[in-house]
Specification:
The complex is a heterotrimer of chains A (about 500), B (about 350) and C (about 350).
Chain A: H1 2-7, E1 8-19, E2 22-33, E3 37-41, H2 48-55, E4 63-68, E5 71-73, H3 78-84, E6 86-89, H4 101-106, H5 120-135, H6 150-163, E7 168-172, H7 180-195, E8 199-203, H8 207-213, E9 216-221, E10 224-230, H9 236-244, H10 250-253, E11 266-275, E12 279-287, E13 291-295, H11 302-310, E14 317-322, E15 325-327, H12 332-337, E16 340-343, H13 347-351, H14 358-370, H15 378-391, H16 408-420, E17 426-430, H17 438-455, E18 458-462, H18 466-472, E19 475-480, E20 483-489, H19 495-503
Helix pairs in contact in A: 5-6, 14-15, 14-16
Chain B: H1 2-11, H2 15-34, H3 41-66, H4 76-93, H5 98-122, H6 127-145, E1 150-151, H7 155-162, E2 164-167, E3 170-173, H8 174-192, H9 194-204, H10 206-211, H11 216-242, E4 244-245, H12 253-263, H13 275-295, H14 301-341
Antiparallel strand pairs in B: 1-4, 2-3
Helix pairs in contact in B: 2-13, 3-8, 3-11, 3-12, 3-13, 4-5, 4-6, 4-11, 5-6, 5-11, 7-11, 8-9, 8-11, 9-11, 12-13, 13-14
Chain C: H1 2-10, H2 14-30, E1 37-39, E2 45-47, H3 48-71, H4 79-94, H5 106-130, H6 135-154, E3 159-160, H7 166-170, H8 180-198, H9 201-210, H10 212-217, H11 222-248, E4 250-251, H12 260-270, H13 282-301, H14 309-324, H15 326-340
Antiparallel strand pairs in C: 1-2, 3-4
The chains are: A alpha/beta (about 500), B mainly alpha (about 350), C mainly alpha (about 350).
């Protein structure tokens, strides 16, 4: 025991945490060694973010004790825990976009000159030194923060954390908006920090990344502690089964879909569709009854293609045909009238209307489509909402619950219900499983497949996770630099092939 | 090359300031071409003399706008009125020294600002509605003190009012000198103190500012105290011009101040603004008034219309500049993605 | 019963209703004959309650328009100035001939005033919906310039209209017992309730107010919704302008509708609609407007002069917004919890 104490920078023991009426954490244990990268894993609602928030002082634990750096601590506010040496970098960068890079690093503790005034010169010099020395970044620190892309802003946030002498760095889903290259750079920085003795808690939904960078994994389920494991002793499949609480066979996750190409019933075609800077000369078709995947790196233009098909981005040239007739697109409504539905990528910002009830969120698109003067009677609204809550197994206390109080997975299901209610012929799912627990994830995957196979719907499935694409899609279009490079059909579809195609080494059997 | 220079100019933080400056020069130029006696140093100095109260009030209100969270202080006009009335009544009914009276008035301003600030931060209320309340409150109090105009006839006080700094044949009033010093002080505070940078930070993103260790609530309360103090100081300067207290003094001044601030390049979302720009904003309004008074036949309401038009111009310009900046940022982001791929 | 009480106290109408009842009780005790309604010789109804509703009419109309605007997360501070423009338009169209002969037919003057209101709405709507300018800033333009425009129309004069029927709008149409303004307000309320209950405009407005981006992705035409609410607000201001002009039978560009935007915003917040947008409460707005007018009338009745009235109003506003704030509710909850547990248990953790 004594030797353990020296080893661990942070120990959380027997942590209980109550929300009014709910026990969010039950006797949870969490250990973090000096200079290691640990991943906190669990489905949504397992208590990962609650545990992190207890640690950073956002929530206050009900029972248990936290030992940090050999001392018992009681985190009260994020600021207090930051001062102790526990820093967090969130997915949405928590910096001030209107201030310069240098200020963002030093605000609140600026170097002072004569008369106690802020010494801008020293501050800027220190900032660029710090960024270059620690992270190898060479940028103009006098520019405003919003001059730089999100990835860079995240690096700047990390630089701030390093400079405040943090001992534990929490990275909360930092990679979800980064390209592969940027992720790689982040990992390099993380390894560098690790070698300096900083401990990192890395939260991500990408299994791949966790196995690349982490040393150990702590698994939580339903607010309880499942265990902590050395990464090399825990195969992926076991990790998933530990998170889900049941034995999952390889086949269940990699479930094989009917990859046969459906009957030749083209629903939508595009011809040389171009949106300057977003979509380059796109020609493709989508048949009813198939699940088409758009594979590509983040920023490759896969979401932009979806947005063009839905009318939130407007093409400047080219044609879109539906059932062989050319359609003009000015607004999303034009496409909704053509029975196209679109679940956008960013659920919080583009999907849910937080303060409206689940019922209202479900009927919204249908009501918008019908026009405001064809008001649905309340009884029909109720029936419709109940139908979809039942169909998609959305977990709600009742249909009048506000959607913002649901978990991410259930919110996603409500958005899908919203679009199913419009009875679409083409359903576009843009990253429908991002940030969602494994259970709901496979439900949504299965739903996409069954909509295509059983209802004859055309489905476009966009995801950054290759495995998911392989499981669901019967055809995959590979997008790179805003351009469709190739298509993979049926048995060709495999993680390796998609990767090669993205890298430009695989051109498929047929184009 | 040319267009790139222009694009960077538009994206630069000081662009609104340049535009405001250019606009002021153009307006002053128009006046000088139209009227013979317009182009003189004294006409220029009169801009400060006539608008000293508005300049001071605008300095205060700019702090509140910069602090974000819908920051605004609608009570400033009413505080100006209350200050004039308090001074007039105190000097009429008591024998307190004018200097003590002024200290009392400044204290009242600070208290009003403190009340605003505490209500806004502690109860998380909308500044618009809170300061609307204190505006009504101050107007009401002014009327309770006296419903009629009360003249100020204290000799010592009048001396202050007519005190002027003369150099050659030109002069500046005490009020205008105070106003200009306030602009300088405010500029320095905003640039060189933690508090000043904190105002920008909470205006940009309050949650981040809190996580970065700033005492956001304390900063915001201080912002409203400054605004209340400036309004009271503006009220004192106003009383030097009017030498009376009246319920309708400073009516609508909050809107003039907001307009000046916006014309001066402050963004109403908070977090962006430059204090000398707001000085120019006031002077632009002053120049329009001067042109109209030189012209003689135009009515005063033209000022309102022209100021409205200028507001419109600046607000649309801000919107365009912001979208331009976004475009630039996207280009950079795209550029870095491309660079990554290579 | 207990459930009913609970339901009432948690409903959005509770606060304005309680405020109104308190005011009415106060009046019942301290103002003689407050609730007396008489029928005048000419058949018109007369009495304090009627007077309050009558004078609250234009405020109710403005507040209805403002409710929708605020629900989208916006604000329209130009309504007071639009009231001035609208009443100036009507008076200028009718003309100030002492003979009482109008320059243009009455209905054309009315339509012109309403059109001016709608036009103002289009202007605000363009700035907010098309140019995506913050609502307060966008409407500030018209607020600043509006009175100037009204003065320009009346040439800085106060135009007095001697044309008899003009007074009907602000007074009574001969033979009808209720003041015309009240009837107009009632019609507007009916229109708004119809829009709220029988169309989906309410759902659209709330969606836009809560998350405009997501609303766009759900197929809602955000621009059109924003446009519509500002036009409706302008239309309401145009209507109120007619009433205000008719009340004094003159166009007073300086004072017509002065501070009415503030009262309208106040009525909306009093009614429980949050300034950040989202859920709105038509009933709350109406009661809020009536409460404000009752307060004004009460103050006059107990002898508070019009220029001192703001102080009282301010105290009421500040109290109400504090009561409505989340923080206060939280403090109240904690207090209740402590009371229940005799200070034994811990405090409620979060809202």
């Amino acid at each position: 025991m004594a030797s353990e104490k020296d080893d661990y920078i942070l120990q959380m023991r027997h942590i209980d945490m109550f929300f009014p009426g709910v026990k969010a954490l039950k006797d949870v244990t969490f250990n973090l060694k000096k200079g290691e990268i640990i991943s906190l894993m669990g489905e949504n609602g397992a208590g990962k973010s609650t545990l992190v928030k207890v640690l950073t002082g956002v929530y206050h634990k009900t029972n248990g004790e936290i030992t940090f750096d050999g001392q018992k601590i009681e985190p009260t506010t994020p600021l207090a825990s930051q001062e102790m040496g526990i820093s967090t970098v969130y997915q949405e960068v928590n910096l001030c976009a209107n201030l310069s890079v240098a200020e963002n690093i030093y605000i609140g503790r600026e170097p002072r000159g004569a008369l106690g005034r802020i010494d801008w010169h020293t501050m800027q010099k220190n900032a660029s030194d710090l960024l270059f020395r620690e992270l190898g970044i060479d940028i103009d620190v006098t520019k405003e923060l919003n001059f730089y892309p999100v990835a860079m802003q995240q690096m700047i946030a990390i630089a701030r954390a390093i400079d405040t002498k943090c001992k534990v760095l929490i990275l909360d889903e930092p990679t979800s908006s980064l390209s592969d290259k940027e992720t790689e750079r982040l990992f390099k920085i993380m390894r560098n920090l690790k070698s300096q003795g900083i401990s990192i808690i890395f939260i991500s939904h990408f299994l791949e990344q966790i196995y690349t960078i982490c040393d150990r994994i702590t698994v939580l389920r339903d607010g309880t502690y499942v265990g902590e494991y050395e990464i090399k002793n825990l195969p992926r499949i076991e990790l998933v089964s530990k998170m889900m609480g049941k034995e999952v066979k390889e086949g269940e996750i990699e479930s094989n879909v009917d990859k046969s190409i459906p009957r030749d019933n083209i629903f939508l075609e595009t011809e040389h569709v171009t949106v300057p800077g977003k979509v380059k000369d796109l020609t493709m078709d989508i048949k009813s009854g198939e699940v088409v995947g758009f594979a590509g790196l983040l920023g490759s233009g896969r979401s932009e293609i979806a947005e063009t098909l839905f009318g939130t981005l407007l093409k400047t040239s080219g044609n879109i045909y539906i059932h062989g007739t050319s359609v003009s697109v000015k607004t999303p409504m034009d496409m909704m009238k053509n029975r196209i539905a679109f679940c956008p990528e960013d659920r919080k910002v583009q999907g849910i209307i937080g303060d409206l009830s689940v019922r209202e969120n479900i009927i919204l698109a249908m009501q918008a489509k019908n026009g405001m003067f064809k008001h649905m009677p309340r009884s029909r609204q109720n029936k419709l909402a109940d139908y979809y809550i039942d169909l998609l197994r959305i977990k709600v206390s009742d249909r009048e619950q506000l959607i913002k109080n649901l978990s991410g997975g259930n919110q996603q299901k409500v958005i899908i219900a919203r679009w199913l209610a419009t009875e679409p012929n083409l359903l576009i799912l843009d990253e429908p499983t991002r940030g969602i627990d494994v259970g709901t994830k496979s439900e949504i995957e299965a739903l996409a497949v069954s909509l295509a196979k059983e209802k004859g719907m055309a489905v476009i499935f966009i995801s950054g996770e290759m495995g998911e694409m392989v499981r669901t899609c019967s055809r995959v279009m590979v997008i790179r630099d805003h351009e469709k490079i190739t298509e993979l059909n049926g048995d060709e579809i495999s993680t390796a092939h998609i990767m090669q195609a993205i890298a430009g080494d695989y051109h498929g059997k047929s184009c | 090359m040319h267009s790139k220079f222009f694009s960077n100019l538009v994206a630069s933080q000081n662009f609104p300031f340049y535009v405001t400056g250019a606009l002021f020069l153009i307006l002053f130029g128009i006046g000088s071409v139209m009227f013979d006696s317009f182009f003189s140093l004294q006409v220029f100095l009169n801009l400060f003399i006539d608008n000293a109260p508005l300049i001071i009030v605008t300095v205060g209100i700019t702090f509140t706008i910069l602090s974000g969270f819908g920051g605004i202080d609608l009570s400033v006009g009413a505080v100006v009125s209350l200050s004039c009335m308090t001074l007039a009544v105190l000097m009429r009914d008591t024998s307190i020294s004018p200097y003590v009276c002024m200290a009392i008035v400044l204290l009242i301003g600070i208290v009003v600002g403190l009340v605003n600030g505490l209500l806004i931060t502690y109860f998380r209320l909308q500044p618009f509605i809170v300061t609307l309340g204190t505006m009504f409150l101050c107007r009401g109090f002014t009327a309770i003190l006296s419903r009629d105009s009360v003249p100020i006839s204290n000799d010592a006080y009048s001396e202050l009012a007519f005190y002027s700094f003369e150099f050659g044949e030109y002069f500046l009033s005490l009020g205008s000198v105070i106003a200009l010093s306030m602009v300088v002080i405010a500029t320095l505070i905003l640039r060189y103190t933690s508090f000043g940078r904190g105002v920008y930070a909470i205006g940009g993103n309050e949650q981040s500012a809190r996580l970065m260790g700033l005492k956001t609530d304390s900063i915001r309360v201080r912002v409203y105290i400054i605004s209340g103090f400036c309004a009271a100081l503006g009220g004192i300067c106003y009383s030097w011009i009017m030498l009376s207290g009246y319920t309708l003094h400073g009516l609508g001044m909050e809107m003039d101040a907001i307009a000046s601030s916006v014309i001066g390049g402050t963004q109403l979302m908070g977090g962006v603004g430059f204090m000398p720009g707001t000085l120019l904003g006031v002077m632009i309004q002053g120049t329009i008034l001067t042109i109209i008074s030189f012209q003689g036949t135009l009515s005063a309401w033209w000022t309102k219309i022209v100021v409205g038009l200028l507001l419109c111009l600046f607000i649309v310009m801000q919107a365009l500049v912001n979208s331009h900046k976004n475009k630039l940022m996207n280009q950079i982001a795209e550029g870095s993605v491309k660079a990554d791929k290579k | 019963m207990e459930n009913l009480v609970k339901k009432f106290t948690s409903s959005s109408l509770a606060l304005p209703l309680v405020a109104l009842v308190i005011l009415l009780l106060f009046n019942a005790f301290f103002v003689n004959d407050f609730f007396k309604i008489e029928v005048m010789d000419n058949g018109n109804l007369y009495g304090r309650p009627i007077d309050i509703l009558y004078r609250a009419s234009s405020l109710i109309i403005l507040a209805l328009g403002m409710t929708f605007v605020i629900a989208t997360g916006g604000i329209d501070i130009s309504v007071g100035a639009v009231v001035a423009i609208s009443s100036a338009t009507c008076c200028v169209m009718l003309g100030g001939d002492i003979s009482g002969v109008p320059h243009h037919p009455f209905f054309i003057a009315i339509i012109a005033s309403l059109c001016v209101g709608v036009l103002a709405g289009i202007w605000n709507g363009t700035l907010v919906a098309k140019f995506k300018i913050q609502a307060m800033v966008a409407t500030l333009i018209l607020m600043t310039a509006g009175r100037g425009i009204a003065q320009l129309m009346t040439d800085g004069q106060i135009i007095t209209v001697y044309y008899k029927p003009f007074a009907y709008i602000g007074g009574n149409i001969p033979g009808i017992a209720l003041p015309t303004a009240m009837i107009i307000a009632l019609l507007m309320i009916c229109l708004v309730l119809f829009l709220d209950k029988k169309t989906s405009i309410g759902l659209m407005i709330q969606s836009v107010g809560i998350n405009a981006n997501a609303a766009r992705y759900a197929g809602i035409k955000v621009t059109a919704v924003l446009f519509a609410v500002y036009i409706f607000s302008g239309f309401c201001a145009g209507t109120a302008g007619l009433i205000e002009g008719s009340l004094i039978r003159a166009a007073d560009a300086n004072n017509a509708g002065l501070n009415m935007e503030m009262d309208a915003i106040l009525a909306v917040t009093l009614g429980g609609t949050l300034m950040v947008g989202g859920r709105y409460y038509i009933g709350g707005t109406i009661i809020g407007a009536i409460t404000i007018q009752t307060l004004t009338t009460t103050m006059y009745a107990i002898g508070v002069s019009s220029d001192r009235l703001p102080a009282v109003k301010a105290v009421v506003i500040l109290m109400i917004i504090v009561f409505q704030s989340e923080k206060f509710k939280e403090m109240y909850r904690n207090y209740k919890l402590k009371h229940q547990n005799n200070g034994g248990s811990k405090e409620a953790s979060n809202a």
